[in-house]
Write a structure and sequence with these properties.
The complex is a heterodimer of chains A (170) and B (100). With 170 residues, chain A is mostly helical. Chain A has a single domain, classed as Four Helix Bundle (Hemerythrin (Met), subunit A) (Up-down Bundle), CATH 1.20.120. Chain A contains 6 helices and no strands. The N and C termini of chain A lie far apart (68 Å). Chain B is mainly α and 100 residues long. The relative contact order of chain B is 0.13. Chain B starts with a helix and ends in a 13-residue tail after the last helix. Chain B has 3 helices and no strands. Chain B has one domain: Helix Hairpins (Orthogonal Bundle), CATH 1.10.287. The chains are: A mainly alpha (170), B mainly alpha (100). Chains A and B meet through helix 1, helix 2, helix 3, helix 4 and helix 5 of A and helix 1, helix 2 and helix 3 of B.
Chain lengths: 170, 100
């Protein structure tokens, strides 16, 4: 229990620090790399929560495919050289104020619920979250959503191709 | 297992960081990354609850959220590339017209 708590605290600190790093870094490439680290720590949280299939999917899909796409676009556009302008001077302070209000609200909700949610079971999990179990559920109970997902991915692919196609000169 | 509250609190903090990113930053790409961060925070809450209730359905939902995120990134980045071609900027303050 205590080993798990120490691991959780260290990982949580890394996750929050990398999220802050992404938020505050000037360079988009650094922000993307911070986000990769953040996704990796979330993958370790999935392992802690007994979801090995999702942990691997998190690393391959998020930290792998999605972030590579981000880095590719950042480097393709070369926006690092663009100057920064601030057209709305009051926008940033207001945003920070709103963020603090949101944080206070959430902290209140979490603290107010403290006694209500029992701390979970300590016995050996009957649900393992193993790839076998996830696959069984995915293809038995959730077959239709799974098929719709394939359609969604096809539409996204066609959309991306159409959007980035060079327009023909008229 | 640690109390599910810990994971929910962490998920909430990460979600707020994502929301702040969308509010503070004006770079479209970084705003987009913040959206990914918020989706991840929601996923973490899903997995924590799946563990808490000993139900694998929560993990299936995370799988679907990941798929939607991948589709969203593909279309969103395509939009950003198109915007950059017409406006030569990825600053959201420069995007004031629907007309290309």
């Amino acid at each position: 229990m205590t080993v798990q708590l120490i691991l959780f605290i260290i990982l949580a600190l890394v996750a929050v620090a990398t999220a802050l790093g992404m938020l505050l870094s000037r360079s988009a490439v650094y922000a993307a790399l911070y986000l990769v680290l953040n996704f990796a720590t979330v993958a370790v949280f999935y392992l802690l929560l007994n979801a090995p299939f999702l942990a691997v999917a998190q690393v391959t899909v998020y930290a792998g495919a999605i972030m590579v796409l981000f880095l590719f676009v950042i480097m393709l556009l070369g926006t690092e050289q663009l100057r920064r302008r601030h057209t709305l001077a009051w926008q940033q302070p207001v945003a920070i104020g709103l963020g603090i209000i949101l944080l206070a609200e959430t902290a209140y909700i979490v603290l107010a619920q403290r006694g209500l949610v029992s701390p979970g079971t300590t016995e050996i999990a009957s649900i393992t979250g193993s790839p076998t179990e996830v696959g069984f559920n995915l293809f038995m109970s959730y077959l239709l959503p799974f098929e719709i997902t394939s359609l969604l991915l096809l539409v996204a692919m066609v959309g991306a191709v159409v959007l980035t196609r060079e327009e023909k000169k008229k | 297992m640690l109390p599910v509250t810990y994971y929910l609190a962490l998920s909430a903090v990460l979600f707020i960081m994502g929301a702040l990113g969308v509010l503070i930053r004006r770079n479209l790409i970084i705003m987009f990354m913040s959206i990914e961060l918020m989706l991840n925070a929601a996923n973490l809450a899903f997995v924590a609850f799946a563990r808490f209730h000993q139900a694998v359905s929560g993990q299936i939902f995370v799988f679907f959220v990941m798929t939607v995120a991948a589709a969203e990134v593909a279309v969103g980045l395509a939009l950003i590339v198109t915007l950059f071609r017409t406006r030569h900027s990825v600053d959201v303050d420069d995007v004031t017209l629907l007309n290309g």
